[in-house]
Amino acid sequence: MHSKVLIIGSGPAGYTAAIYAARAMLEPILVQGIQPGGQLTITTDVENYPGYGDVIQGPWLMEQMEAQAKNVGTKIISDIIETVDFKSTPFKAISESGKTYTADSVIISTGAQARWLGLESEKKFQGYGVSACATCDGFFFKEKKVAVIGGGNSAVEEALYLTNFASTVYLIHRRDKLRAEKILQDRLFNNEKIKCIWDHQLQDILGDEDPLNVKGIKVKNVKTNEIQDIELDGVFIAIGHDPATQIFRNQVEMDNEGYIITKPDSTLTNVNGVYAAGDVKDKTYRQAVTAAGMGCMAALEAEKFLAEKS
Questions:
Q1: How far apart are CA 120 and CA 124, in angstroms?
Q2: Closest Cα partner for 204 from 310, 120, 302?
Q3: Sign of the torsion angle spanned by Cα atoms 250, 256, 260, 263
Q4: Closest CA to 207 of 133, 305, 119, 282
Q5: Contact criterion met (CB below 8 Å) for 6 and 95
Q6: Catalytic residue (choose from 79, 136, 279, 282)
Q7: DSSP code of 24?
Q8: What confidence tens digit (pLDDT) does each residue in 262-289 have?
Q9: Does residue 133 carry a catalytic annotation?
């Protein structure tokens, strides 16, 4: 299957790129990937996406974006790309189903996934008191007690952000010192709302069944093996994110964490005609609205690239 624009991935960045590319009469093909709709499909209440006065549901928002992309002429395919070849043109992508997609330009929007601890209870309460995004969900914990799990920059940033809402923020770290930058640590230690619990690991998340909601956590002291319960209302897992960029290794330039590097103020990678939008290249903001904005940029840049080629 050949297209002028092949979009790999289907979160806010992918669908927005598809909407703009289709409206530019580029007849894009979008291959949805392993999680159609991306991280928003596991996010329940969304209050910070512009244009909606009332709380909306993440999965519903992604359904609307998909429908809009289809309505303006995007060909949406439920498939997973396994290998790509950007060394020569037309660019090539081969899927799990064995299909070969070729394209004059490619927009990579495969997103990133939050790292999870792998606890059964963590999975069970996701969206019901367990989150990996303080900027998305912190607002729901006004005057409540929450815990942040982790010890790096993202954990400290999440903890500091949550003090805008929560009455108490426990920072739980399995070591006795943080890996975060010194300036962040100083801000953390000077904040009266934050209580650090050193040398502890999260063992379990406790809560009610009906309705599902978090009531507390069980933590273990890694030095003494002593277990204690802490009463609280929310748990934020902040042990990092992994960009979904494995299949693009050795094809486009990446940093040491696997995020795709793009030119300043652009979504262009080091390969002319290949663009990256959303969480595959953004480790700073990680918001649906910024991903959508980058999807728009990528489509406009691809349109210009194709116009100059023809």
A1: 6
A2: 120
A3: negative
A4: 119
A5: no
A6: 136
A7: T
A8: 999 999 999 999 999 999 999 888 899 9
A9: yes
Average pLDDT over residues 1-24: 97
Return the SS3 of 283: coil
Query: What is the pLDDT of the chain when averaged over all its residues?
Result: 95
Residues 6+ apart with CB under 8 A from 171: 147, 148, 150, 151, 155, 156, 159, 188, 194, 195, 196, 197
Q: Which of 137, 233, 279, 282 is catalytic?
A: 137
Tell me the two tokens of residue 226. 């002593």
The 168-172 sheet, strands edge to edge: 130-131, 234-237, 145-149, 168-172, 194-197
Known catalytic membership, residue 137:
yes
What pTM was estimated for this model as a whole? 0.81
Looking at the DSSP bridge assignments, the partners of residue 107 are 7, 275
Q: Which of 211, 234, 206, 213 is nearest to 144 (CA)?
A: 234
Is 296 annotated in the active site? no
Burial class (CB in 10 A: 0-12, 13-18, 19+), 142: exposed
Residue entry with tokens 């159609």: 36
Structure tokens at 287: 């918001």
> Could you say which of 79, 133, 279, 282 is catalytic?
133
